[in-house]
Specification:
Elements (H helix, E strand, L loop, with lengths): L3 H7 L12 E4 L2 E4 H22 L9 H20 L8 H20 L19 H23 L15 H36 L5 H32 L9
Antiparallel strand pairs: 1-2
Helix pairs in contact: 2-3, 2-4, 3-4, 3-7, 4-7, 5-6, 5-7, 6-7
Length: 250
């Protein structure tokens, strides 16, 4: 008889999966269909809200225009507080897009009954409930702060790896790997845990008990979007400010 350990030795690690997923095969590519569907749904919601808010701009904003202007002011203040008066303006679109996409994605998982929509395989959930989405957002953040550092400081950006002493070079390199890891797993873990808790409570006590937990989930979902966007802005400021923060926040 072959024991379990021997079986694992012959089982390719890449073939292991958690849960069932919907895949689309286009040419030689395998696309994660359920994440793509919910991601484009969130993008469509944001696009519709933007068009509705700017279609008939009023000097005294009201309705959706008022909501979008409030969101814009909030995002502008967020970028300004992290990046400083001089550098924050070019980064408002990036920081704002990160926050809005994550915010709407998180709330879609808390408010929409995705699991009632049946797929040939797998099930729908918030885009941020999938590690592929959160890793992609974290890698975009890493590219952004590398770009910001090179644009602002040129080759001097590399000095951060050997200051104040070259002995810290391995730690500085390791930090560049841990930043996207912490960003992606923090967001993924919190959203997945929240949806699992709500799903279990709805299954066990389907009436009023899950409502406070769902309200708490909406709050934590908003906080996670804020944390991700704030850390992204802080990393960009760190890349542009130089070692020791030679530029201070305004």
């Amino acid at each position: 008889m072959i024991d379990g350990l021997s079986v694992l030795n012959y089982l390719p690690l890449a073939s292991l999966e958690v849960g069932q997923h919907l895949y689309w095969h286009i040419g030689g590519l395998e696309i994660h269909g359920q994440v793509l569907l919910t991601s484009w749904f969130v993008i469509a919601l944001l696009a519709i809200a933007s068009i509705a808010a700017t279609r008939n701009v009023q000097q005294v904003p009201r309705g959706i225009q008022n909501v979008m202007e409030y969101a814009m002011e909030f995002l502008r203040d967020l970028a300004k507080s992290q990046l400083g008066e001089k550098d924050y303006r070019p980064w408002i679109p990036f920081i704002g897009t990160l926050f809005l996409f994550i915010f709407v994605s998180n709330w879609s998982g808390a408010l929409l009954p995705w699991k009632l929509i049946h797929l040939p395989s797998g099930e729908l959930a918030a885009p941020t409930n999938d590690i592929n989405t959160t890793v992609a957002l974290a890698l975009l953040t890493s590219l952004a702060y590398f770009y910001a550092g090179f644009k602002k400081r040129g080759l001097g950006y590399f000095r951060k790896y050997v200051e104040p002493t070259p002995i810290l070079l391995p730690i500085a390199i390791l930090e560049d790997f841990t930043k996207p890891l912490s960003l992606s797993f923090r967001l993924f873990g919190n959203i997945l845990a929240d949806e699992l808790v709500v799903a279990v409570l709805v299954l066990l006590v389907p009436l009023f008990v899950p409502l406070p937990v769902m309200a708490l989930g909406l709050f934590t979902s908003a906080i996670q979007a804020l944390v991700f966007a704030t850390l992204a802005a802080a990393y960009i400021h760190e890349a542009t400010a130089g070692h020791g923060g030679d530029e201070h926040h305004e």
